[in-house]
Amino acid sequence: QEQLVESGGGLVQPGGSLKLSCAASGASLNFYAIGWFRQAPGKEREGVSCISASDDNLSYTDSVKGRFTISRDRAKNTVYLRMNRLKTEDTGVYYCAAKYFTDSTVCMTLPGVTTESQPDYWGQGTQVTVSS
């Protein structure tokens, strides 16, 4: 059973930066596509970024393109989400999730996840608050 743990959330001013981490215990993350999702108060959860198992397919939802960067450290079994130029609308609980695809170049659809790309595992989430 894969267990995902997010960290790195916090309170930051608009224009600031945070780096979230998604670490795994159990099986290696290296065979999974990893997605970052967020849920703002009163809103549905949405996917913001995904990295394929092969690491050569990186995707971002339009609202974060140019500001967020997803990456993976295979030696540490960890996936990161670097968030720059944060905005108040980036506030929410951020979750990482893992999905096994037989094609290692495939990633989860964003921002809405299709039935076929529903993650296999979810973390518990980390709070990100962007406020002055």
Blueprint (SSEs and pairs):
Elements: E1 3-7, E2 10-12, E3 18-25, E4 33-39, E5 46-51, E6 58-60, E7 68-73, E8 78-83, E9 92-99, E10 121-122, E11 126-130
Parallel strand pairs: 2-11
Antiparallel strand pairs: 1-3, 3-8, 4-5, 4-9, 5-6, 7-8, 9-10, 9-11
What is the overall silhouette? Answer: globular
Relative strand content: 35-45%
Give unreliable regions as ranges.
Answer: none
- Provide the gyration radius in Å: 14 Å
- Helical region count? 0
Average pLDDT confidence is 95
Work out the helicity level: under 10%
Helix and strand succession? EEEEEEEEEEE
Q: Largest sheet, described in full?
A: 7 strands, mixed
- In terms of structural class, how would the helical and strand content be classed? mainly beta
Please tally the β strands and state the result. Answer: 11
How far from one another are the termini? 40 Å
Structural commentary:
The chain contains no helices and 11 strands. The protein has strands at 3-7, 10-12, 18-25, 33-39, 46-51, 58-60, 68-73, 78-83, 92-99, 121-122, 126-130. Strands 2, 4, 5, 6, 9, 10 and 11 form a 7-stranded mixed β-sheet that branches. A 4-stranded antiparallel β-sheet has the order 1-3-8-7, with no helix packed on it. It is globular. The model has no long low-confidence stretch (mean pLDDT 95).
